[in-house]
Design brief:
The protein is of the alpha/beta class. The protein has helices spanning 12-20, 32-41, 60-67, 102-107, 109-115, 125-130, 143-147, 198-209, 240-252, 266-271; strands spanning 2-6, 25-29, 46-53, 57-58, 73-81, 85-88, 97-100, 118-121, 136-140, 151-154, 164-171, 182-191, 212-220, 228-238, 255-261. Strands 1, 2, 3, 4, 5 and 11 form a 6-stranded mixed sheet that branches. Strands 8-7-9-6-10 form a 5-stranded mixed sheet. A hairpin with a 3-residue loop joins strand 3 (46-53) and strand 4 (57-58).
């Protein structure tokens, strides 16, 4: 079994692969499209990609990639704290610079300033740790320490300790809703036309059933200007019959529904011990 993921080795997505499928061969790729394409073609068993972040919101390339591939769906997910550790290659050499991706440097600004060190940008947090030289401190995910045989200078050096990212496990599965119910559901609604009040009427199906929607994302449809796909993040337990019944109601209102995956809302998973 192999799993494609957003590389290089040592990224937070790599860490999510280990959490979701620890016995699989992890195969880093350049972007979400390549990761999903490998699953679609049968070259990979799964793909792991970020889908939601507690600070920056949903990850659009992952959602767009799923929308473009109706044969794929989310079958599992994991939420990881976005915590950065600081590493050195040789602790006997006095440090003079901190190296990381620009986002990593920005999220660890307070600790860097306390050290009184200059900074240098790298293409990724993993690349920064992988390529550390004498006197350099790399900031990256915890997996980097083991992966690149580094010395841990400090743990948890991020400014915001409450940041989380949700990662989706994607497989070649068309209907991710099991008969015995699942926690959470990601649904896409493709309306036939853009008419006044269409979104309100579509969401009325949820209100009548007492279903809570935790997030709503709209994405344009390039082939049909003026038409948008609505992505609904739903909280609760759903059976296949539940989804079929809702799909029929949405169809009667002029929209085609598709279950993109079984995925609990980010805040619910982050709250679990």
């Amino acid at each position: 079994m192999n799993v494609t993921y957003l590389g290089p080795s040592g990224t937070f997505t790599h860490q999510a692969v280990v959490a979701l499928r620890p016995d699989a061969e992890a195969v880093p790729v350049a972007d979400a499209a390549e990761a999903l394409g490998a699953v679609e073609s049968g070259q990979a068993s799964y793909a792991v990609l970020p889908i939601d972040n507690s600070v920056n919101g949903v990850v659009v390339p992952t959602l767009d990639g799923l929308l473009a591939r109706p044969g794929l769906s989310i079958v599992d997910s994991v939420v990881l704290p976005i915590s950065f550790d600081a590493y050195s290659r040789d602790p006997s050499v006095p440090p003079h610079v901190v190296v990381s991706h620009p986002h990593g440097l920005a999220q660890c600004r307070r600790w860097i300033e306390e050290q009184g060190l200059t900074t240098r940008e790298a293409s990724s947090t993993a690349a920064a740790c992988r390529d550390l030289g004498p006197g350099e401190i790399g900031i990256g995910a915890r997996i980097c320490g083991q992966l690149y045989d580094l010395h841990t200078v400090a743990e948890g050096v991020e400014d915001n300790s409450a940041a989380f990212t949700q990662f989706a496990l994607v497989s070649a599965s068309r209907l991710p809703v099991r008969a015995d119910g699942d926690d959470g559901l990601l649904v896409s609604l493709f309306p036939d036309t853009n008419v006044p009040g269409i979104l309100r009427r579509l969401l009325g199906v949820l209100e009548e059933r007492g279903v809570n929607m935790t997030n709503l994302v709209t994405r344009p449809v390039p082939a049909t200007p003026g038409i948008f796909v609505f992505l609904l993040f739903l909280s609760g337990s759903f059976t296949a019959d539940d989804f079929e019944a809702m799909s029929a109601e949405w169809a009667a209102l002029g929209a085609t529904a598709r279950a993109l995956g079984r995925i609990s809302p980010l805040h619910e998973l982050a709250a679990k011990p």
